[in-house]
Amino acid sequence: MKSGILKNKIIEIFKKFGVNKAHATISANALINAELVGAYGHGLARLKMYCDRISKKVINPRPKIKIKKISSSISHIDANNSIGFVAADIGIKTAIKHAQKTGIGMVAVKNSGHYGLSGYYAEQAVKKNLITMIYTNAPPAVAPHGALKSLFGTNPICFGTPTGSKIPFILDTSISMINRGKIRVAARKNLKIPKGVALDKYGNPTTDAKKALEGVQLPIAGFRGSGLAWMVDILSGVLTGGNHGGKVKDPFDDFSGPQNIGHLFITFKANLFQKNYNQRIKENIKTIKKLPKIKGVKEIMYPGQNKYKRFKENSKRDINISEIIKKDLEILNS
Q1: What is the pLDDT of residues 254-272, one digit of tens each?
Q2: pTM strictly above 0.90
Q3: What's the mean per-residue pLDDT of the chain?
Q4: Are 184 and 194 in contact (CB under 8 A)?
Q5: Which member of 31, 127, 208, 210 has the lowest number of beta carbons within 10 Å of its beta carbon?
Q6: Where along the chain do its domains lie?
Q7: Which three-class secondary structure string do you get for the chain?
């Protein structure tokens, strides 16, 4: 299906569930972007989940979002349990405005929900020639190092910078071996997951996606990944006023209340300290790309290059909709 047609369908579905057109459009744009960059676990696979949470009154379709300006560079947003896309859109745009005015912007968001891909928001800042760091926490999926019980989310870490070219440097990575969205997609399709990414609820290694969802995901780099997850929980949960310490609710299974996810957006001008930043970053990338390559590698890529390539290629073709997603769309349209 063509992306424009699909986007309009998604907008109409969100409007049917009480979301106004502006917020429905913001949400649809984020979902379509996830499909175009190949992050299917954050795309249409989650549409029904958002609508279910609106129906269960744990996402507010008509939020009264409050922005408290702490200084000319810092704001604190209470998203009033809005859909995460809307809260994050306001958050990054506010951080961008602060940075453009003062050189740096810092925006904390509380009472939000899952907002999709951090890199999607980072790109907005990078296009304005800003460097950005973005943090958000998530429902329990990863056990702290040495523990058997899940507590930290997959808690992505995101960093973006201009590169002096049309392709931005965007590092957007969860602290788990694979993101939870991929495991959910595998579980729905009865597919296996790779070895070494999860344990079942008894602490045994598993390639069964459903058992992995009941058990524990493994962090990258052992205790280091666990430490990074803890850092994100502090920055996006403890600091912002959002839930933390394992209290973020699972969006698919727990309808007992809002998620109250926290986000932290930090943006600053790339040329704050060196006026020739774009020249310097170009030199940096060029130096690394010139390094001798291991067998089978044609080019040393920087984070964001592959995603940009997928986006360009996928934008030229129709979006493939699986039978499972088709059923979701039928249910939501009925």
Answers
A1: 999 999 999 999 999 999 9
A2: yes
A3: 96
A4: no
A5: 127
A6: 1-55+318-334, 63-176+219-303
A7: CCHHHHHHHHHHHHHHCCCCHHHHHHHHHHHHHHHHCCCHHHCHHHHHHHHHHHHCCCCCCCCCCEEEECCCCEEEEECCCCCHHHHHHHHHHHHHHHHHHHCEEEEEEEEECCCCCHHHHHHHHHCCCEEEEEEECCCCCECCCCCCCCCECCCCEEEEECCCCCCCEEEEECCECCCHHHHHHHHHCCCECCCCCEECCCCCECCEHHHHHHCEECECCCHHHHHHHHHHHHHHHHCCCCCCCCCCCCCCCCCCCCCCEEEEEEEEECCCCCCCHHHHHHHHHHHHHCCCCCCCCCCCCCCCHHHHHHHHHHHCCCCCCCHHHHHHHHHHHC
Look at residue 185 in the predicted model and tell me its pLDDT: 87
- Residues 60, 86: contact at Cβ < 8 Å? no
Q: Which residue has the tokens 């957006």?
A: 265
Number of C-beta neighbours around residue 17 at 10 A:
17
Tell me, rounded to whole angstroms, the distance of Cα 258 from its chain centroid.
18
Residue closest to 237 by CA, chosen among 310, 328, 140: 140
Fold of 1-55+318-334: Hypothetical Oxidoreductase Yiak; Chain: A, domain 1 (1.10.1530)
CA atoms of 257 and 218, how far apart (whole Å): 27
Pairing of strands 74-78, 66-69: antiparallel
